[in-house]
Amino acid sequence: LEQHEAPVVSMMMYANVGAAYEADGKTGIAHYLEHLAFKGTSRIGTRNYPEEKKALDQLDVLFDKILAAEAAGDQAKIAELNEQFKTVQAEADAYVEQNKFGQIVEQSGGTGLNATTAADATRYFYNLPSNKLELWFSLESERFLDPVFREFYKEKEVILEERRMRVDNSPIGQMVERFSEVAFTTNPYRRPVIGYQEDLRKATRADVKTFFDTYYGPSNLIAAVVGDVDPNQVKQWAEAYFGRYQSRTHPDQLVVSEAPQTETRSYTLELVSQPWYLEGYHRPGINDPDHVVYGMIDSILTGGRTARLYKALVEPQIALDIGSANGFPGDKQPTILLLYGLTAPGHTVEELAVGLEAELQRLQTEPVDTATLDRVKTQSRAGLLSQLDSNEGMASLLAEYEAKTGDWRNVFEEIQAIEAVSAADVQRVAQATFRPENRTVGKLISAGDSAPTDEAPTDEALEEA
């Protein structure tokens, strides 16, 4: 898409695969792959790839032996193999040119080099001066044509530490992970994007390669280029660089068959934390006609200081904070509208639940007033237009809508869909959704009188939970 306001270009490579596509027992592989995609190829990031490959292959063999020794409980053998592993790891490290991929991008004026893993997708993105755009085609095609997955075992420790920080040592992280497990029974959204600790520990480089070979074929990758570009030149470069890819069998579509919930599900965790309350309701995915209606409901309840839950719970100091995740943990499949709150000192999660229930009942019994509906429509339009106003936001949305809805043009149809939402739509969807049998409740109870306040989960943390 051409945007000639400044001589810069934003690029998004959208892999149409996320953690929801992993097999049970192999959680976290999509996230591993995101990390390893920055480690280079057989030509980028190595001083001597033939020799490095020998060491990498030897590490894989040793790790398999370590897992076997652990299964047998042979502590002496484990210690011996770990020493051998350290020696070979040092040999492999000697061939690595650290962060070579990132250095090439930065030396060419690139900014914002990053990636994210979610339930539905994995995104790789950065910006370049427009006269360096061909470099993106070269680097991006190379890293998904010839990945090496070097430094896998070192990255394993990074990811395990990331899990410890975000989940194992975080009360709200544990709370969110448990919520998915209770709310879903067969939907793969029940598993954490970051992966379970034991799966992460036992993962192998072969697991990553199998996942890559299955899901990173050309038919499952979507590239968006937005900025100061010549479309004809972009097409030529795309054919020259990505035309090197061999076609692969398109991966099977993810089939989700979650049975309708028939009664309220609930759980309680007792941890060293201030009390939190989570309440979520099943809702359809992004391709349902009522998708934008759920956005309106979310804004009515939690969209800033004028939102109903803020006025009902935060202003009277029943809650210190309230929030939501509309489409948790993804929205390509049937999903969850999640509402949460942190209780204020001297108040309980039960009080927060009562206040929340009153506002949900109000949505079902009273048509939303015109002023409120107009306000949330304005907020929704402004939020969408703000994202579309930047090269980065445009690239992200074009790729996402192409992947999730089948046509990137649908993002521009959402403005009209927002405008068409009526008070009757809001009431109808609220009545269909906010039913006790469709509800999952999570309570985080303080295990101590002086529990620290755990910060509210960010959108990124919820997406990766």
TrEMBL record:
Gene3D superfamilies tied to this protein? Metalloenzyme, LuxS/M16 peptidase-like
Q: Which InterPro entries match?
A: Metalloenz_LuxS/M16, MPP/UQCRC_Complex, Pept_M16_N, Pept_M16_Zn_BS, Peptidase_M16_C
Q: Where are the transmembrane segments?
A: none
Q: Where is the Peptidase M16 C-terminal domain?
A: 203-379
User: Residues annotated as region Disordered?
Assistant: 444-465
Identify the domain of life.
Answer: Bacteria
Q: Which Pfam families match?
A: Peptidase_M16, Peptidase_M16_C
Q: Which GO terms describe its biological process?
A: proteolysis
Which intervals hold domain Peptidase M16 N-terminal? 4-49, 97-194
Q: Which GO terms describe its molecular function?
A: metal ion binding; metalloendopeptidase activity
**Ranges annotated as biased composition (Acidic residues):** 456-465
* Coiled-coil residues: 71-98
Which key words tag this protein in UniProt?
A: Coiled coil
The entry sums up its family as follows: Belongs to the peptidase M16 family.
Name of the protein in its database record: Peptidase M16
Kindly list the organism's lineage. Bacteria, Bacillati, Cyanobacteriota, Cyanophyceae, Leptolyngbyales
